[in-house]
Amino acid sequence: xxxxxxxxxxxxxxxxxxxxxxxxxxxxxxxxxxxxxxxxxxxxxxxxxxxxxxxxxxxxxxxxxxxxxxxxxxxxxxxxxxxxxxxxxxxxxxxxxxxxxxxxxxxxxxxxxxxxxxxxxxxxxxxxxxxxxxxxxxxxxxxxxxxxxxxxxxxxxxxxxxxxxxxxxxxxxxxxxxxxxxxxxxxxxxxxxxxxxxxxxxxxxxxxxxxxxxxxxxxxxxxxxxxxxxxxxxxxxxxxxxxxxxxxxxxxxxxxxxxxxxxxxxxxxxxxxxxxxxxxxxxxxxxxxxxxxxxxxxxxxxxxxxxxxxxxxxxxxxxxxxxxxxxxxxxxxxxxxxxxxxxxxxxxxxxxxxxxxxxxxxxxxxxxxxxxxxxxxxxxxxxxxxxxxxxxxxxxxxxxxxxxxxxxxxxxxxxxxxxxxxxxxxxxxxxxxxxxxxxxxxxxxxxxxxxxxxxxxxxxxxxxxxxxxxxxxxxxxxxxxxxxxxxxxxxxxxxxxxxxxxxxxxxxxxx
Length: 511
Prior knowledge:
By secondary structure, the protein is of the alpha+beta class. It folds into three domains: about 5-110, Arc Repressor Mutant, subunit A (Orthogonal Bundle); about 115-300; about 415-510, no CATH class. The chain is about 60% helix and about 10% strand. The strands form three sheets. It has a four-stranded antiparallel β-sheet. It has a two-stranded antiparallel sheet with strand order 1-2. The protein has a two-stranded antiparallel ribbon with strand order 6-7. The radius of gyration is 38 Å and the shape is flat. It holds the Pfam family DUF2397.
């Protein structure tokens, strides 16, 4: 069979494709039970149906190269049985490969995906195990190989599931005909799910990046070579095409393969100049999905509130037309929907009010209307009279001004409460009111997100350019507690310096 021969997939487009899939599925199940050959009666026992149809289908699968037929002489007792065609069927390499490809295809289509915070913890655990092995002068090759294989498998599962989840999440955001109550309940759980994963990705992802840097500084390449050498030990003996040792050739291939895997793994968690890490992009995508979900809820609320949806209105109108029993009812529905009724009530001239014409007067019998040249030329007709009164909005403007002033005062007070004159421990910030605590969380989140592997101090500025925070990690293991009316915020203690840039600008301008 040539490399471009795709006949093992021909049964997918043939009549009775479902029967062919079930027959091939019975052979794959038998292979899992270490059964090599099947008779037509065995297949019939598994899938049921008509035995002659199964026999014909087996012959077709043999023609396409999915199965191989061998004469069945084990049950021959007479000369007539010997001349009667009896076969044992087994999978060919091409047929088995086709079924494995179809199974992978079905699994990819049905994958829902998930953001696996547990996978992040498992990856960090495997990296810590590798860090212990890299410190050894002669690490156990079996432990090194198994740890790297477990790390690659867990990371591949994490990346694939994250991609599938974000694709399904985008389809959820793009929906239009969802039940509002069901979607709102789903939205609450989904937003909580996204927030928890983003928090774990920030915390555990930073730990993973630090472990990757430590491994590379000590020498992770040595562990990759150990894994490649262990895989090359299973190479068949002999001489290669160019006279090279097959084990050495396999070692070089495995070495390049493991180095490529490590570079892909490193790029997922550590950013490079002009190339942000995939973890950072995933975190940004998950954060952006939260306001998009809220926008979907707002759209559904607007629909429930009665905002016009022209496509839905036209569909309802089409159903009414289809349900109308008489043509007269259709005409009345048309006039009611599109306003096609006599317009004699629209006064074009003042004299029309003195000589009204009944609305049911046919146009051919009604007197002509004199249309103003201005109306015919510009499409507008200005009637004389007193203009509409201007609405006084002073009370609303005053309310908005007072609300803005109050909000600005609360923000200014929160800034004053957070500003530090010198580097201060987080544990020394004391108690914060809700407004100051919310501002502090935004500053702390921006600083933690800006951390790079191996960096102890980070400085970042808020998006509006009003405040700067400088955060320095400590190695004393102390925990910080910040008390708020809603509870106590706990975490590793840091040195923090918060600067209000608006105050410095005012001082410079006055100077």
